[in-house]
Design a protein that fits this description.
heterodimer, A: alpha/beta, TIM Barrel, 5-stranded parallel β-sheet, 3-stranded parallel β-sheet, 20 helices, globular, B: alpha/beta, 18% strand
Chain lengths: 540, 135
Amino acid sequence: MEKLEKPGINKNENKFATRSGIPVKEVYHPSDLTDWDYANKLGEPAQYPFTRGINQPSERTKWVIGQYFGFGTAKSTNELLKYVLEQGAQNLVIAFDLPTQCGYDSDHPMAHGEVGKIGVAIDSLKDVETIFDGINIEGKTISPGGNNAISPIVLAMMLALCEKQHISPQKVKFVFQNDPLKEFISRGAFIFPPKAAVKFAVDTVEYCHKQNLYLSAPQMYCGYHLREGGATIKQAMAFTLANAVAFLDELVSRGINLNDFKCSFQVFLSGGVDFFEEIAARRAFRRMWAKTLKERYGCTNPRVLGIFLMEYTMGSNLTAQQPLNNVVRCTIAAMAAVLGGANGLIVSSYDEALGLPSQEALRVAVRTQQIIGEESGIASTVDPMAGSYYVEALTDELEKGATEIFQKVQDKGGSIEAIKSRYYMNEITKSAYQTFRDIESGRRTVIGVNKYQVKEEKVVKPMKLTSQKEEEEQIQRLQELRRQRDNTQVQKCLAQVKESALKGENLVEPILAAVKAYATIGEICNVLSEIWGRYEQPGI
Amino acid sequence: MTMTRTRPIKVLMSKPGLDGHDRGVKVLTLALRDAGFEVIYTGLRQTPESIVKTAIEEDVDVIGISCLTGNHQILSSEIINLLADKGANDIIVILGGIIPEEDIPILKKAGVKAVFGPGSQMADIIKFIRENVRN
């Protein structure tokens, strides 16, 4: 078991260092890029090792502008989805509440007070039918948010919905986060222990591949939550790649050749304000990803080697003090993401530290991206930072540092072992504490927090999304469903899920049958936990 | 006559419910340890029952509740009621997280001794604990 050593005060006295501790020289020269070879280090855009991004040059710098929001009941979600569709949106993001994400039905004691709170409550297929009532999902992108520990169940619900709408699931683009490993390290929406979690998640990937759901991205490896939990950018790069490799090892062990892989993968990164380090990190990460997958799996498939980067500017960089300053922080982070070759980007709302965003803050977040894309000119050409002595030196340094950490994780037996031994948790906690100490001691400047403070009233806004009444109504609907459905059929299906799990089979098909019989997420997770157990997080 | 404490102040840091935002609670755990307190952090997914049980078994002076999902009212009042049931209401309960202004008077009336919202200073939290744990 890794022990948490007491983090000390930062010994690095170099005030000119990047956030992750790379010393920054006064000036950079060609001599900083020794043995630097264009074809080897960069290559052309959309070509191995994808340092310059995955977009074809003709696409210039192009990315998808995203927004993330949560809402209360299935019915209000349905109304909102209809509204955003009328506004021309094609990407439907649906945030789930915490009980859904953690495998508890709305009437479970652990769910009390959380039903419909940070997203919509889904107990059974019935709720999904309500959410999509009157909405044809053909040709749409559907991203069920917070879908990690339960991804085969959510996939099964989507397949059942396609069946009801008489459309082929091949005609829908499903984007699943489906990265339960990061839940053990940061974010915490875990259900089953790490090894079972990997198996369950890969069931979704395997099914999507075998059914040729070629539009879909069945897994998105997340560095975002690791950094929000305190990881440095190097740790986030390394741990994300190590988690991806843990899933891919499982997928490949099932006889799937990544060179024939039908779907695509994504990586979810967060954007901070250390401008050049952020730009370099994206370029370094793509290169590391491509090299690792090529070497480890003999993969030559550009669809897999060129990784799609979804990004979100960091919420943990935002301050409760002088919140308007956060518009500037978000702009710097978003520019770095774009210059680093982000393929999808969500910008935080400047008032996030003080509760749910206002309409104005949401609008400014979207406008920030539009100003970057349509006014600033930075998106006119592909990878405009390429060839800068400093950026290339940083890109190399970050790749080197992150690769060393990645190797350390592999030496410890990979991600599952690094979770079990608390290595990840302790490393991230140490980094988070270091950041706190650096800000407290003034070593790291945060404007408005430890420098240039003003006297101000901080007003935290109300954040009640659903009322007690709505929770009770959801519970009533659930209990009515349990009375009305064919419970013999439900029990039969649940027994089949259990049997398949015992045999180690792919669970999507048996879960699809259970979902169609209106078995609940809680019931399905209960039978699986009888075999796999439930994860209990240790403290520090 | 003043009694002098013979042991350090003991704090239980807790995450009740399903909330997974634990960066703050972990940083606070380490900072309070550095300030000389004895601090236990039990990990995510605790219930009010398990928190009160640990607090009594470990004989803590303070329970720190961390909640960033908006479910702070239900969770803190359940913990305070359970403490009262067990005759352990000498344990001070403090709360941290994104707590709306309008909820603070209600929480204080329910027995929460202090609320530390976004942008709170560590020194203020430490000072509050030192001044409010009886010697």
